[in-house]
Amino acid sequence: MLKIQNFINGELIQPNSGDYFDNSSPVTGKIYSQVSDSDETDIDNAVASAKEAFKTWSKLPKKERYDHIMRLATEIEAHFNEMVEAESKDNGKPEWLARAVDIPRASENFRFFATASLHFDSEIHEMDGKALNYTLRQPVGVVGCISPWNLPLYLLTWKIAPALAAGNTVVAKPSEVTPMTAFMFSEICKKINFPKGVINVVHGFGHKVGDALSKHPDVPIISFTGGTATGEKIAAVATPMFKKISLELGGKNPNIVFEDAEFNKSVDMAVKAAFSNQGQICLCGSRLFVQNSIYEKFRDSFVEKTKSLKVGNPKNDDSNLGAVVSKQHMEKILECIELAKSEGGEILTGGKRLILDGDLSGGYYIEPTIIENLSHSCRTNQEEIFGPVVSIIPFANESEVIEMANSTKYGLSASIFTKDVSKAHRVAAAIDSGIVWVNTWMLRDLRIPFGGMKSSGVGREGGFKSLEFFTEPKNVCIKI
Ligand code: NAD
Known about the structure:
The protein is α/β, with parallel strands linked by helices. Helices cover 39% and strands 23% of the residues. A hairpin with a 6-residue loop joins β4 and β5. α1 (40-57) runs parallel beside α7 (206-214), α3 (80-91) packs across α4 (95-119) and α9 (263-275) crosses α10 (292-307).
């Protein structure tokens, strides 16, 4: 069986322990590979290799780093179909989605940040002819990049690309739930002789390798995307060491539809926002607020459209949804649905596991689920579910919906649907979230500051914000 090995100092190697754990595909529930069960000694080796490589990589002219990074993008594109299939098999998402979003974004991340590094500049502060201050933006050192399973290669490269472009070297820790495309990426690095030690990938469990990376004294900077509870643990070990940290965490995002919204477009967008990637996107609109006067009509149309979604073989282009990522996660989602029922929620559609035919009968499929009749303050409407489950809630007016939307501990993203421009501006300004969309959802420009407020994160990544995070500003003052 295929063994997913670590990539350290340019070599694919087995973990020091010699141990592996099973990796199964949620599409079938069958084990198909084995993952390195690494420990802190593997992290020590990876960090040592990255530290050594930093001495040369950080000193390369920008254009040379750009050339190296662009080769990564080209090679991902050369392996496009294999990576699409692998991402779908490992994560359960439909292949069309990996083809349209995950893998193109992985190569785009490298192109985007390699190019951005050529345009990145810094400030000068002139002091009335007396002195001149200029700010150097220097790479920080070895970066720890820790990523989740929902957009495996997309989010891993979202970190690696700007970290490298800024002149740092990397030790990456992909999710143990979806390690395959990170492994394929390390094979690519080896194949193209990417400078040794600049990128290292260590597989394994979060509480072992993720923790060892977060507290390693030679890793001064951590970029993490994942759950809020994990972010808290990382902050607890990294903050007392005064590390730079960027935390992209969970969400419970409101999707607000006013009575004057374009009806059909907002229904379509609400379906997309709730169920894309089986509802496993941090930005998913999992709380759908609809104004009273259109509530029943909207709800019925939303339920009808949701019922027409097909949950099926991720290989088929007509499958709207594939499998959720793992048995454990499926069970968690089903428990959340039971909790919603016990809180008085009424299931308008879905609510159950689906058993597909043949080989797929052991896979982890859940019907897209809509819940009604819950207070905005109950657990179902406060806690992240991260599955194909949405709660629909009526509201009377602007102030009421703002209060309900802001009532969770999260603050990642929000969508507002209205034709009234002034209302859109007012509500956008009043919502506690790092990202607000008006009349759309998940329209991404890689240059914007991306990140969350409250328990959804610390810091912003994206565009020059990423390059700022992955560099240390140093002011030089020259007396004239
Ligand atoms: P998770 O927090 O369980 O795991 C994320 C990563 O952290 C994994 O690589 C894991 O091995 C590692 N990890 C676990 N324990 C650790 C520890 N003690 N120290 C260091 N690393 C540790 O998250 P997940 O279940 O993989 O992903 C789902 C979560 O990610 C959801 O909450 C979702 O909202 C969030 N997410 C956020 C964003 C964003 O941009 N804000 C994007 C995608 C996903």
